[in-house]
Amino acid sequence: MNSADAQQAAGTLLTLAWMLALAAVYAPRIGLVAVGPQRTGEVEHVPRPALWGLGAAVLLFTTQAGVVDAIADAPGRITAADRPVLAWMVAHRTPEATAVMHAVSNWGGTVPTLALAAAATAVLLVLRRWSDAVAVVVATAGVPVLVNAFKDLYGRVRPPVETRLAVEPDLSLPSGHALGATVIIGIVAAVVVRSLRSTAGRVAVLAAAVAAVGVISLSRLYLGVHWATDVLTSWTLGGAWLALCVTGLACLTRRRSGRGSGHQPGQ
User: Fold this and answer.
1) Which of 66, 141, 191, 259 has its CA 20 to 30 A from that of 6?
2) Which residues of 2-41 are buried (b: 16+ CB within 10 A; e: fewer)?
């Protein structure tokens, strides 16, 4: 993981850049900086969804970089939980739980999650929600790129073969299941939430999405094919990409609304 230090440095620089952008936008609004009328108008039109969405993406990427750096340089710190978690999973296996976890892992794999994305895209196209459909496609397309690129970049081996209940020949970090579930279930939940007006409905959808991602990720730990820090890295890396996609969708919707295109909410 020779890139760990570089990624952490990049994360720090991105965080500083975002903080400067945040200050540039909000300082004039609260009277800390005096600006002319024209500049004030420009500041008022900075899309807050973009600012905060990018902030979430930067935070998640920086967290991911910190975890990977700790895995590479300080294996006694954050990775101290890896072996105890694996040992606990192995010690608490039962035939019934194993059957359930195999099923969950299968349903959270590549084909089912791609099928979910394809079904969501088809429904959105029928409903003429073009922006939402594009967001689902772009978010989904990024999953194999991130998984394959970062597996090769990190080169981390999986837990010992004797602890595994599934055959996995490739590398360990990140978890394709955890990252894919985070992004694909996350973006589908995001477009569903955009169509709901009920707060309770939105909370229910988001809670269901979080639970689904959590159970899929847990299945990979139970089956002994990933370390706990693999899953943590997958959540943060996938979350960063998801935040970028949701931010892009929000900005696109805002831009179309500003043009007075007459589209329906959520399109």
Assistant:
1) 141
2) ebbeebbeebeebeeebeeeeeebeebeeeeeeeeeeeee
Round to whole Å and give the CA distance between 186 and 117.
Answer: 10
HSE-up of 52 (CA within 13 Å, CB side)?
A: 5
Which amino acid, one-letter code, is at 195? Answer: S
Which residue ranges make up each domain of the chain?
80-258
Concatenating the DSSP letter of every residue in the chain gives -TTHHHHHHHHHHHHHHHHHHHHHHHHHHTTSS---HHHHHHHHTS-HHHHHHHHHHHHHHHHHHHHHHHHHH-TTSGGGGHHHHHHHHHHT--HHHHHHHHHHHHHTSHHHHHHHHHHHHHHHHHTT-HHHHHHHHHHHHHHHHHHHHHHHHH-PPPSPGGG-SS---S--SS-HHHHHHHHHHHHHHHHHHHT---HHHHHHHHHHHHHHHHHHHHHHHHTTSS-HHHHHHHHHHHHHHHHHHHHHHHHHHHHHHHTT--PPTT-
Average pLDDT along the chain: 86
Q: pLDDT digits over 62-86, tens only?
A: 999 888 888 877 666 788 889 999 9
**Predicted TM-score of the model (pTM):** 0.86
| Rounded Cα–Cα distance for residues 137 and 139 (Å) | 6
